[in-house]
Specification:
By secondary structure, this protein is of the alpha/beta class. The protein has two domains: 85 residues, Rossmann fold (3-Layer(aba) Sandwich), CATH 3.40.50; 134 residues, NAD(P)-binding Rossmann-like Domain (Rossmann fold, 3-Layer(aba) Sandwich), CATH 3.40.50. It contains ten helices and eleven strands. A six-stranded parallel sheet has the order 1-11-8-7-5-6. It has a three-stranded parallel sheet with strand order 3-2-4, with helices on both faces. A two-stranded antiparallel sheet has the order 9-10. Helix 6 crosses helix 7. The longest helix has 21 residues. The protein is globular, with a radius of gyration of 19 Å. It starts with a strand and ends with a helix. The relative contact order is 0.17.
Amino acid sequence: MSANIIDGKQIAEEIRKEVAQEVEKLNEQGIKPGLATVLVGEDPASQTYVGMKQKTCEVLGMHSIAEKHPAEMKEEELLKLVEQLNQDPDVHGVLVQLPLPDQIDEQKVLLAIDPAKDVDGFHPDNVGRLMVGQPRFSPCTPAGIVELLHRSGNPPAGKHVVVVGRSNIVGKPVAILLMQKNDRANATVTVAHSRTQNLPDVVRDADIVIAAIGSPHFIKADWLKDGAVVIDVGTNRVDDATRERGWRLVGDVDFDAAVEVASAITPVPGGVGPMTITMLMVNTIEAAKQLSGIS
């Protein structure tokens, strides 16, 4: 057996075309969806992520505001900026790039974002709505995973999904999304983690494995049931002397071996990654509609 490769780039591009059509419809009504990104400091990875988000906005015809500030920025200054963006009618989504410098309380900043503009879906108000099945926005990476399963022809309904990882960003919310009562969910979900007893046996019982533990090649091929679907969220740097830069990206699953066992699998890179920014754009469109009174 050799698994089908779930092409996250292709699926993300399909969704971006749909987003571009939605942008055109909103423009016809005098609405230009706007996303404000706030970057504090000069972390290279954060600069890259913010740049990609801004570029995607521009390609899709959306309004993009980039707030870049030095690492010395005071917490009260950042909170004041967030409030200004909350009040700006041209801004429909507010995203503060994490991590923040040590002098700033990340939780306080996230709580300051208007839940109606919290397109990351991290505000407790939005987390609570997700829990009770009435989401305003779904967190971007988990929402991307649901789309990957749906659009690749691997519906989770009635299946046993094992999520390996319990983070607030991926593990917990994707579990909640997949157990909802709707046609893209209806799964039986087990959340496992590094301290789960007999973890290989738990994973081996899964029809769908979602690996989000943040450890390179943590999940081995012999942990997988024959024909399992594997969604690898991990993005880990490992040394590679054959590469000019001296490293390469790998997932949380031993891909080269797992591809011989699974029926479908996402690659790293090129699987879940492209979906995250795409779903951020989807959330920004949704925010623009909600804030403009469009159902």
